[in-house]
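[Help] Beginner question about ligand-bound structures

Sorry if this is basic. My supervisor gave me a protein sequence and a SMILES string for pyridoxal-5'-phosphate and asked me to "get the holo structure". I don't really know what that means in practice or what format the answer should be in. Inputs are pasted below exactly as I got them.
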Amino acid sequence: MAITAEALKMKAQGIDLADFGAGEPHFATPRHIKDAAIAAIEANFTRYTAVAGVPEVRKAVVERHAADFGTDYTVEECVFSTGGKLALFNAIQVLVDHGDEVILPVPYWVSFKDIIQYAGGKVVYVESEERENFRVTAKMIEAAMTPRTKAIILNTPSNPSGAVVSPADLEAIVRLAASRGVYVLLDECYVYLNFTGEIVSGASFGKTSREVREHVLVMGSLSKTYAMTGWRAGFALGPKAVISAMSKLQSQSTSNAASMVQRASIAALTGSQECVAEMRADYITLRDRVLAGFKTIPGLTCTVPEGAFYVYPNVSAFVGRGGMKSAGDIAARLLSEAHVVTVPGEAFGTAEHIRLSYAVSADVIDKGVERMRTFLGGLA
Ligand SMILES: Cc1ncc(COP(=O)(O)O)c(C=O)c1O
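Answer (accepted):
No worries, everyone starts somewhere. Holo just means with the ligand present. The predicted complex, written as structure tokens, is below.
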């Protein structure tokens, strides 16, 4: 937060920043999605809707998920919300009671920790190994389970590391959790930004196992898939009783997601998915460009992300140089001296990394990497 605030101040002063801070696509929302929202407004589709979303948007969500992952959710097993974050927040509020434990692999997206704690839950961290490409396995999860474990959070591809849980690990984790009566919250915010060529949802294992189906909850978002971060469009798929409780909670807070956003989301989910494939291909090119740039910076090492749009380089070689004592110091100095915006790893539970979002133009990548090379290379 401190770095973001400082970056905003610098931007306001007209300083040219290479900004890798924001976790959002640089692409414009595709035309047909914007047109659907405009048409909805023109048609006066501007009133309250059903709290969980109009049946058409929920149908679009379940049909998209069925077509892409082979799941068979019904409309009653879907709630549409004002962003994936709200769906996640509501799910955790209805599932987690005071003292319940929620397993969270490290590095993690910071909101998971805060949302669990807001519900009174205890976060149980599971450290992943950088040399194993931040892999999360069933064995690691099992070792962290106790009789108080209520849920496990899996975010694959991961923000911040870009790590992808393999289909075999995913299946082992959901089966293990279900057999112990533990919920798995699958954050599929980046599910379509998976570069391995094998795009799988952990919910698909629920098709052949009732136990799995009753314990898996999908948290989905249109934000990154369709370059729609500002629209606030997300959803959850899961057991009817949980979805119904989430809708009830939503009915006393935000109520329905904006009506025209629901129409735009129908267009996104039912229209051609060509735009998703094109953006994914562009992200792969941008990832490779930033990784190639990092190779020219002695001391900087980085795992190869298999999805999302973040790189999570290890900066430990620079700690202790130039008076910098932490990743936080490095991110602060990169901003003040090199005019490069990054997010320090401390925000994601690791002390030796910084996160860069490469959802930016190739020019920004080239400029930013050059500035990093000059700054880091010049340290005594
Ligand atoms: C891991 C993860 N989950 C969920 C979200 C929430 O997305 P939204 O609320 O925009 O749908 C984000 C956004 O940054 C994210 O990185």
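A couple of things worth pointing out: The first strand starts at residue 18 and ends at 19. Residues 3 and 267 are 37 Å apart (CA to CA). Feel free to follow up in the thread.
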